[in-house]
Q: What sequence folds into this?
């Protein structure tokens, strides 16, 4: 695992349909001196973007290679079928996979649902991209199943969509190379998990910004030992103080037989001297 920062910027890859805006805003508020650069990548190419070091982390579609990447699942999208607005399927609130059995269903080459066998009748050829498939739906060639965010991304006034029950779904995750878990990656993990600025599991804004400027950093798991040590020391000191207070009360002999017995032993020692 490497923990060095090679640039005072943080590069975040993201795939079509993903909207990282809310996390970017939080980043800019917490680390105004560390610019966040967005790197858009097709879903199929996004893992390679991270492997090649063109981005520090990414919001990608699952699955990813867990022998190389660390991933924190963020959410799972609803799968929808994109249809013309005058299609019969618009009469219902949701569609089952069985309802598509007699429909021509387009299966673009950049499909992200990972079908073993797409439903319906296959088209004469597979469209190159989801965007091309949407154009074919508008032309009345067939229907298209995609995550809801992609249906929104490629929205057209003459098309609509309905949720599909029983279809595969697309999961989205924050992903990064496990061996490149830097301070800035840890900072972004804290943001997507909703940690506060002063969370003990994250590094402070000033520390992260300063390390990024200086080209320094520690690995994700290289948290300062003093934090744990400080807590342990505080517990020992507190228990020691408690024992001292109890001894002091016992020495005064204020209550109980133990106090009287202690006072007798002290008196005997004075007589011997």
A:
């Amino acid at each position: 695992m490497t923990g060095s920062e090679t640039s005072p910027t943080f590069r975040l890859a993201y795939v079509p349909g993903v909207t990282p805006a809310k996390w970017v805003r939080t980043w800019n508020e917490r680390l105004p001196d560390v610019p966040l650069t967005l790197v858009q990548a097709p879903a199929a190419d996004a893992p390679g973007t991270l492997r090649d070091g063109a981005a520090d982390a990414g919001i990608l579609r699952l699955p990813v290679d867990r022998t190389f990447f660390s991933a924190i699942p963020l959410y799972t999208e609803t799968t929808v079928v994109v249809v013309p607005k005058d299609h019969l399927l618009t009469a219902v609130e949701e569609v089952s996979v069985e309802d598509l059995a007699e429909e021509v269903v387009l299966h673009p080459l950049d499909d992200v649902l990972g079908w073993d066998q797409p439903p319906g009748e296959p088209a004469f050829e597979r469209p190159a991209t989801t965007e091309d498939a949407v154009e074919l739906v508008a032309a009345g060639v067939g229907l298209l199943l995609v995550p809801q965010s992609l249906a929104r991304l490629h929205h057209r006034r003459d098309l609509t969509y309905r949720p599909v029950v029983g279809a595969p779904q697309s999961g989205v995750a924050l992903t990064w190379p496990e061996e490149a878990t830097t301070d800035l990656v840890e900072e972004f993990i804290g943001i997507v998990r909703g940690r506060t600025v002063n969370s003990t599991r994250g590094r402070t804004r000033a520390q992260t910004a300063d390390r990024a400027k200086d080209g320094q950093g520690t690995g994700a798991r290289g948290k300062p030992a003093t934090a744990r040590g400080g807590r342990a020391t505080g517990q020992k000191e507190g228990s020691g103080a408690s024992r001292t207070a109890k001894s002091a009360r016992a020495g005064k002999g204020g209550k109980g037989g133990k106090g009287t017995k202690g006072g007798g032993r002290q008196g005997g020692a004075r007589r011997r001297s």
Observations:
- The first strand starts at residue 10 and ends at 14.
